[in-house]
Amino acid sequence: MAVPTFNLIKLDKCLTEHKNVATLGILPVCEGIMTAKFKKLRFSVLILALVNHASAIPIAKPVGDTWYLNAKFSCSDPLGLEAAYSSNAFNFHSLPVKVTNVTQQMGYLDLGFGNFNDLVAKGAVGGTVESTQLTKSQAASLRSILLNKSEHDVVPFIGQTLVSVIISFTLKAGTGLVAGTFFNYLFGELQTQSIPPRVLAEVVAEGGSVTSVLTGFRDKDQHPYAVHAFEYSVVIGSESRHYVTTACIYPVNATITQIKTLATSNNKIFKLQPNGTWRKWDITDSKFEDDPLIETNRDADFIYFTLNDPRDITNTQRISLKGGPWQVLQGGQWLTLCSKTQPL
């Protein structure tokens, strides 16, 4: 697509006359200077004009969706076993949970784009699965915890493996049919049997297994979530029994923070910096190249950048969010520098 020219001097004059440079309130006032065709790109153009007028490089806040910062997580741990599973006695991997508000149960799982996509890709096998077979001392420790709990603190007994139940849950959650906690789903929709701690303690024994399952999914609004649950399973005679003891549903920060080029040589990694700018890392030389990149816009397919001198629109670059090209704008056309990339 050819990019028409615009009069940066007139835009600068307009910004001077309307002194709301600190906000974007000037956009409707000054956009009339541009041609009708160029108004399709008015956001990027006026940002460039703002930078030119202020004679400084803005510290850009990432344009990505930060909905997860105000989202709530839900956990069910009626028997208080989460602490035991997290201890050195069981050695399960801890999750990068960031709590933003304890009283309102607001927080998220800080996975990043690549890790979340890996979880979703593993959905057919339940996600990331860890399992440990109980030793004699581990079984005794669990029984001791269970026998000191109230008989009102029940857990679900499921007639199938936790992995298969979670797969069913995530499929329904993606259509908006699930609300509340994972235990709500088990007790409500699946109508599982409630097991008090004393009954569970009777079947906890050496050789039984504790399994952790972490699975990623998207809700009906395409927001990323993860469900993390533990089950205790044991074989009694010819019967395999499964009890879900702990479960959480977390919003997920799946923000793209790095994008790698996939050329035959001379590859780069675009890295999001703490101040909101991006830097281009040369993999071969192990160093940053050029000045910071300023993110000016983002759509469903690309992140758009400008280089150190944003007054020159030919410094505009874009990189795909979906594994497509890294391109630079030259002569009004997008020139491909690398045809394949990988968001991380």
What does it look like?
This protein has 344 residues and is of the alpha+beta class. The protein folds into three domains: 1-56; 67-253, no CATH class; 256-344. The chain has helices at 8-17, 27-30, 42-54, 82-86, 112-121, 136-147, 162-173, 182-189, 197-203, and strands spanning 74-76, 97-101, 106-110, 128-133, 155-158, 193-195, 209-218, 224-236, 239-253, 258-261, 268-272, 278-282, 287-298, 302-306, 317-320, 326-330, 333-338, 341-343. The strands form two sheets. Strands 1, 2, 3, 4, 5, 6, 7, 8 and 9 form a nine-stranded mixed sheet that branches. Helix 1 (8-17) packs across helix 3 (42-54) and helix 6 runs antiparallel to helix 9. The longest helix is centred in the N-terminal third of the chain and has 13 residues, at 42-54. It is elongated. The two termini are 28 Å apart. Mean pLDDT is 81; it is low at 1-9, 15-31 and 33-63.
